[in-house]
Design a protein that fits this description.
The protein is of the alpha/beta class. The chain folds into two domains: 309 residues, no CATH class; 112 residues, no CATH class. The protein is 52% helix and 14% strand. It is globular, with a radius of gyration of 28 Å.
């Protein structure tokens, strides 16, 4: 961990005031969550979660084993995964959960940071509470239907895209058409040893599994099986049957809207616009469609279709075909917490923002609200990049400033304009101090005019200072170009690396050592942005 520096999330400038205030434990946010995630608070969370239904545990284990039966054999040791699945039947076993969409080739870097956070938190909890078992869980958002959000990655300075027609839950999509995408990836990455390993892994994942959900499970299992990560697909009829009472309550009583709207309004007024709950927060899945269920009076229907139900017919449909009812992002949280003896959910800032809306809903339906943990965030840089920055008089943490500010700073330090201007500012101030004395003795009404002129001259001097700095920027254009190139290497498109880059180039360079370093360096309860030198 010697190579890890950290910066506060607030100082990065990339995280919302809501998240920063939460991490600062501002008292006005206390009503939005159960317990703040420090290791000592898990003791009470464990107590609250004890007594989780034995019947639910047994059903969950059966379904997880059935889902894993579809997994093609891997070269990794997966005994730890199945040991963890079996442990879920035991009353002293609890889970830590994260989740993500089924992005192409895992999507942005932070996908890995989420899972590393879950794995490492389970390890920390086992040290603190050795009489209990803690299982890391990854929830695949297999029922999402927005294919455009997941069908691409940024790589090699461009975008690699999976083009196909898509409708309904993305987890059910056939992946046979990935052949072309895999060939293109091979051209981009297949020259290195680790690159060839990845292409082989992806071919086995996408071309030897029946759908995107199973392909994604295979990939994630490959990287995290030895850590015992349990991967669950919520698009499962028998798991959804456990949610029938809640789905019924949502359809008939619109319980989510009633319990969430007030908190949503409060968050919108004090911070920013939140995800607003619908009157019914369920979709309907059938024959390649996933459309929202709506209610008009005593009739329920599926938007953009001719499907309608009376109350009796709707409830019969729910009882016979629970797999056709799909929770949206808000209600999915309740689904997760119902089927797992879960202690905490780990997610990014956007995810935690909608979890903050839900405490009252969980209280209403009497399901324990999980502790909310901000996932790890990191910036990866090399020794060489650090040395280049040092030659410019910069540190890695300085790059969290906007690029134009960095350029101004470099220009000012290259030719120290500010120190040269200070004597002139002092002389100007002294001159106007003397004029102020004259005005005071002559006519006090002139003091305002003197001070106005003072400010005008100081403003003029400051404008001149800025012009000199701009001239220095032009003079040092080569240095500025090097700075911009380095900045964009680490902050592609002036955004966080973890939100833009895919993991492939880093794995190409470092292989398994890359993931092992993440597991070693990232502290799940540190709550600072990590700077990782490779």
């Amino acid at each position: 961990m010697d190579d890890v520096q950290c910066i506060s999330y607030r100082d990065t400038g990339y995280f919302s005031s809501l998240i920063c205030d939460y991490l600062d434990q501002k008292p006005e946010l206390a009503h939005l969550y159960n317990r703040f995630p420090v290791i000592e608070n898990f003791r009470e969370q464990i107590k609250e979660r004890s007594g989780f239904s034995r019947e639910l545990r047994e059903k969950l284990v059966l379904r997880l084993k059935a889902q894993y039966d579809r997994l093609q054999p891997t070269e990794t040791d997966d005994q730890r995964v199945f040991h963890h699945i079996n442990l879920l039947e035991e009353e002293k076993t609890y889970t830590i959960t994260t989740g993500h969409q089924l992005n192409l080739f895992t999507g942005p870097l932070y996908f890995f940071y989420k899972i590393v956070s879950v794995v490492n938190l389970c390890k920390e909890l086992k040290k603190k509470y050795p009489d209990n078992n803690f299982v890391p869980v990854h929830w695949m958002a297999a029922e999402d239907h927005d294919f455009a959000e997941i069908n691409h990655i940024n790589i090699a300075g461009g975008r690699l895209l999976w083009e196909r027609e898509a409708g309904g839950p993305v987890g059910r999509l056939d992946t046979a058409s990935m052949e072309t995408v895999l060939e293109r990836l091979k051209e981009l990455t297949g020259k290195s040893t680790h690159g060839r390993e990845l292409v082989q892994l992806f071919r086995k994942a996408y071309l030897e599994h029946g759908n995107l959900a199973d392909a994604t499970r295979y990939m994630v299992h490959h990287f995290f099986a030895e850590e015992g990560l349990v991967i669950v697909d919520g698009d499962d009829s028998q798991l959804k049957s456990l949610m029938v009472p809640f789905f019924k309550q949502e359809l008939l009583e619109e319980v989510t809207l009633g319990e969430v709207e007030g908190t949503t309004q409060w968050l919108t007024e004090h911070y920013f616009e939140q995800v607003h709950p619908r009157n019914i927060n369920l979709f309907y899945i059938k024959d390649g469609l996933r459309e929202r269920i709506d209610r008009q009076g005593k009739t329920w229907g599926v938007l953009n279709t001719g499907i309608t139900w009376t109350r009796e017919v709707l409830l019969k449909e729910l009882e016979e075909y629970p797999e056709r009812f799909s929770p949206n992002a808000i209600l999915r949280t309740l689904y997760q917490e119902t089927i797992f003896s879960n202690l905490a959910y780990i997610g990014g800032g956007g995810e935690l923002a909608y979890w903050f809306q839900l405490k009252q809903l969980f209280d209403k339906v009497e399901v324990p609200f999980p502790m909310l943990v901000l996932r790890n965030s990191a910036l990866i840089y090399t020794q060489r990049q650090q040395e280049k920055l040092q030659k410019m008089g910069l540190q890695v943490k300085d790059l969290f400033q906007p690029l134009h500010q960095l350029k101004s700073r470099i220009a000012a330090e290259s030719a120290p304009i500010d120190p040269k201007m200070e004597p002139y500012q002092a002389k100007l101030q002294k001159m106007f101090d003397e004029l102020e004395e004259v005005a005071h003795l002559t006519d006090k009404s002139m003091l305002g005019a003197v001070n106005a002129q003072r400010q005008k001259q100081l403003n003029g001097l400051d404008k001149l200072r800025k012009k000199l700095i701009r001239a220095e920027k032009r003079k040092n254009s080569d240095k500025m170009e090097r700075l911009e190139q380095l900045y964009l290497e680490l902050f592609p498109k002036q955004s966080l690396q973890e939100r833009h880059d895919n993991f492939i180039p880093y794995y190409e360079e470092y292989g398994e050592k890359w993931l092992q370093k993440l597991l070693y360096d990232l502290d799940p309860l540190d709550f600072r942005f990590a700077l990782l030198r490779f």
